[in-house]
Specification:
The radius of gyration is 20 Å and the shape is globular. About 12% of the residues have low confidence. The longest helix has 9 residues. The two termini are 33 Å apart. It contains one helix and 31 strands.
């Protein structure tokens, strides 16, 4: 494996500088601001937006702009934030912007207005994920895991071709779990980054389209490129726990999320639909310790397997089909949606299910920036 070419640590007083570049393709426009990417932080308390001008950060409770770094007109196709802190991973959009190319990751400290780490690779970076102790860089056929403390490479993982940059990481201090595609279509490899334990799950027959872990890494949600089923696994022993049916027709599932209380799963798709599914209560009693899970797997043959059929969604909401939305959860049965069209929506479902109620719909570029400082980690 030779994709990484260098790793440097540096300090720059002016990181975002003026550049001219060609018009990017496949970009949603709203007014004169073009959105290159939208991304939730780890607990849905905020989201980041990469634009052709720079990046913006918004907190969600209530929705407000926290950071705007657009004055230097330098675009970023990836903006990954660490909770609501001052730390970001940035990847340039690559359109005639040689100073911030798509094969480099810049770790930016907004508190000091400087980049303290630059990671370079021989191929384009397609995703970055952050934990308080790890930086995970996803390339098309490999994943690099760095220790955040010393910026050393902890592991290099080979994957099947992964143009979507599929990867997710847990956030609990006690468990460092990462999931990414395996070496064959439909496979997911789940890794305990502390103990270097690997579990390969045959999740689907076709390629994986999206995946998500719970904050503690115990549950894994997956969907394939077919887009008809969403499956929930015990990430530690690979047991299929529950299966949801989104629909009968093929569809691209844009995003899937498991609520922090592990009661709900939400998914958005190209059909202009948001579906919320109900997790069975007994899932919470499934083994969440790797040693326990390993012991259980030894007697798996004499235990009854779950025989639940695929279940329909509990609640639904209609969205514009022209826009990609990513989904997250808010408090008290609320679902949060951020769209590539520059929109933020907050929806609520009740105990009866059915059609959800839209509580809030705003264009996030029109929000006034607050003077509140972000947390320094």
């Amino acid at each position: 494996m030779s994709s990484m070419i260098f790793s440097t640590v540096r300090g720059i007083g002016s990181f975002l500088k003026s550049k001219t570049y060609d018009q990017p393709i496949d970009v949603a426009a709203k007014g004169d601001t073009k959105v290159l990417s939208v991304s939730w932080n780890q607990d849905w308390s905020g989201f980041s937006v990469g634009t052709e001008r720079g990046f913006n950060v918004y907190s969600c409770n209530p929705i407000k702009e926290s950071i705007s770094r657009e004055t230097h007109k330098s675009g970023f196709k990836i903006v990954e934030m660490l909770f609501l802190s001052n730390l970001f991973a940035l990847v340039g959009n690559g359109y005639s912007n040689s100073e911030y190319p798509p094969n480099k990751v810049f770790i930016w400290n907004d508190h000091t207005n400087s980049c303290f780490c630059e990671l370079g690779f021989k191929s384009q970076v397609v995703a970055v994920k952050l934990r308080r102790k790890h930086i995970v860089v996803v390339l098309e056929r490999s994943v690099y895991v760095y220790n955040f403390t010393n910026l050393k490479v902890q592991s290099i993982i080979e994957t099947v071709e992964n143009p979507r940059g599929l990867c997710c990481v847990s956030q609990a201090e006690a468990k460092a779990v990462m999931a990414c595609p395996g070496l064959h279509p439909g496979q997911v490899q789940v890794r305990d980054l502390k103990r270097n334990i690997v579990k390969v799950i045959k999740a689907h027959d076709s390629d994986i389209a999206c995946m998500s872990l719970t904050l503690d890494g115990s549950l894994l949600a997956t969907a394939s490129t077919k887009g008809t089923l969403i499956r929930i696994f015990n990430s530690l022993d690979g047991t299929l726990l529950q299966e949801f049916r989104r629909g009968m027709e093929r569809a691209e599932i844009y995003s899937v999320a498991i609520s922090s209380n592990m009661k709900w799963v939400a998914a958005s798709s190209e059909k202009g639909t948001l579906h919320v599914f109900h997790l069975r209560p007994d899932i919470l009693s499934s083994p969440k310790d790797i040693d326990h899970a390993s012991s259980l797997s030894l007697i798996r043959g004499i235990l009854p397997m779950y025989s639940y059929g695929n279940e329909r969604s509990f609640a639904q909401f209609s969205l514009p089909v022209s826009t990609k939305f990513i989904v997250g959860f808010g408090p008290e049965n609320t679902v949060l949606l951020v769209g590539m069209d520059g929109s933020f929506r907050r929806c609520r479902f009740d105990g009866e299910g059915g059609q959800m109620v839209e509580m809030e719909h705003k264009h996030f570029f029109s929000l006034t920036q607050t003077e509140e400082a972000v947390v320094v980690i």
